[in-house]
Each structure stands twice: as structure tokens, then as C-alpha cells.
Design brief:
The chain is mainly α. Helices cover about 80% and strands about 0% of the residues. It contains four helices and no strands. The chain has helices at about 5-30, 40-70, 80-110, 115-140. The longest helix is centred in the middle third of the chain and has 31 residues, at about 80-110.
């Protein structure tokens, strides 16, 4: 598995776990009450910060482990990696645009800040997961 593919897998797995944990913690804090009453901002910021930190630590650890076996191949990338990265980025950007449009619509309707923030947060999470899936599929099946 090449360096960029390992990074794609890491980002994908961490994103799915982080979002699952975030939703479970948010639901637990709500305790059956309205979600808009939950103090969600600290949980969201911790989720973002920890998922970034965990991704970095796993990427470094995995790189070190692979580097011990194959020093040359541990961080090598080629044109295929760049093409897959670009394709994944385009997929991610599409979902971020959709989330941004949703945020604008919610702002225009005067929605609660909870829903506006979570629409954008979900857009980032979905874009990371879908972009990661697109990258992994491209590595496994190739670019069409």
C-alpha cells in the first residue's frame, strides 16, 4: 500500500469513527430532550481537534512502521497518486458546496444556530468520508 493510499484509509476510518462518536455524545447529552438545548460547541471543537490529532499520529506511526521495512517506499508518490488526490478533492468540494448552499438557505430562513453549524459540520464530515471512499476505490480499481 502506497503512502497516499494509507493516508486515504486513515482519514476515512478516523472520520467515520469521529462522526459516530460525536453523534452518540450529542444524543447522550440531549438525554431525550431537544438537541438545540445541548451545549454542542465544545463537543464539536473537541471532535474536530481530536480527529485531526489522531489522523496525524496514525499517519506518522504508520509511516514509521512502513519505513522500517521499506525506507524508499514509505513516502513515495507518483502521478497516479496526484491524479487520485485531485479526483478525491473534486468529490469533496462538491459536497462542501452543497453544505455551503444548505447553510445559506438556513441563514435565509433564520434557522437556529445549532442547525446552521451542524449543516456545515455534516458537510465537512460527509465530504471527508465520500472523498476517502472515492480515493480508496480509485486505488483499488483504478481511475476510469
Amino acid at each position: 500500500m502506497v503512502f497516499e493510499e494509507r493516508n486515504a484509509w486513515t482519514g476515512l476510518v478516523v472520520s467515520v469513527i469521529a462522526m459516530t462518536v460525536y453523534v452518540l455524545v450529542l444524543l447522550q447529552l440531549a438525554g431525550g430532550g431537544p438537541l438545540t438545548e445541548v451545549d454542542w460547541l465544545p463537543v464539536m471543537l473537541w471532535t474536530i481537534g481530536l480527529s485531526v490529532a489522531v489522523t496525524i499520529v496514525i499517519t506518522i506511526g504508520w509511516g514509521i512502521a512502513v519505513g522500517m521495512k521499506d525506507r524508499e517506499g514509505a513516502s513515495r508518490s507518483d502521478i497516479r497518486d496526484r491524479d487520485i488526490s485531485r479526483m478525491g478533492g473534486r468529490v469533496e468540494h462538491a459536497f462542501l458546496v452543497i453544505a455551503g448552499l444548505g447553510v445559506i438557505a438556513l441563514c435565509a430562513m433564520g434557522a437556529d444556530l445549532f442547525w446552521i453549524a451542524h449543516t456545515m459540520f455534516a458537510g465537512f464530515a460527509i465530504s471527508a468520508v465520500i472523498g476517502g471512499i472515492a480515493r480508496v476505490i480509485a486505488y483499488r480499481r483504478g481511475l476510469l
